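TL;DR need structure tokens for one chain.
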Amino acid sequence: MDVSFSNKKIKVLVVDDSMFFRRALSDSLSRDARIEVIGMAVDAIDAMSKIKSLKPDVVTLDVEMPHLNGIDFLKQLIPVHPLPVVVVSSAPIRALDALDVGAVDFVRKPDIKNPEATTAFMSELILKVKIASTAHVGGKKTASRFFGNMHLNSGAGKNKVIAIGASTGGTEAILSVVKDLPDTTPGIVIVQHMPPVFTNMYAQRLDRICNMHVVEATNGARVEKGKIIIGAGEFQLRLAKDAQGYYVKSEPGPKVSGHCPSVDVLFESVALTAGSNAMGVILTGMGADGANGLLKMRKAGAYTIGQDKESCVVYGMPMVANNIGAVQRQFPLNEIGAEIIHHLNSGV
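>> reply
TL;DR here they are.
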């Protein structure tokens, strides 16, 4: 993945109750020339004290800790010190809980008996610490100015399909967009950069909250009104069509634009399959995945939306898409859901 960062050192505080893991994280992070580990904390109380005195740029946080777990710690931390936090956890549900209360990203704890997994984990953590250092945290959440106008007219959106792509900060951004969409909304296909198991847990979480039914992608699943399909981790998600309508292909494959699933892969398939009957939305995330695919969607006649800079956790993917002319209109995150309904009702 092509990601550029400034040359300024990133000051990191490592928070973990395991002395072994604290030291391992500190040693590995410190080997990167861009990162300076300025301290370590054994629990949430220790962490809060050191955050005040050391003023780190990024915090890595274990979720399961004594006295105060990482989720409750984040609830206290973010309103007072809106710092980028990268959660380190082996439990998908706890990682998603952490994102829900303000963490920027997460990395799965590896099996320390597996050297290859440990090496991959450290490479991922280093990259996500760098991405987190660019994140905007603690932005004010406001209701949409169109709030309450989420009614879809009868017959609106027939033969339409909506494609959404996101990365860092995307789990909450996607929720903001789709949460209040009515169950009559055309089928939605989504790629959020996330590993296996986590994508299924995320789909289940959205399904409990949204009006629409949300599932993790399976090969051949139908894209239907009132249904959202989340791309499965390590499977490329593509839109296809037959005599019955739209369905998805969910198949293993190489990384594209640095990712599997890739937003570019999804968007390019939507451009080819649905053309002007599609709508594309690109949300917060580092890098450029999705930009070229969204441009192809726009050239095929689809309506394309980008999240604006002010509401992004990381204004990377939407910025690149906007810069190359892939985005027709930019909106604050809290207005995108209503814009989807407005556009469907317009019949364009």
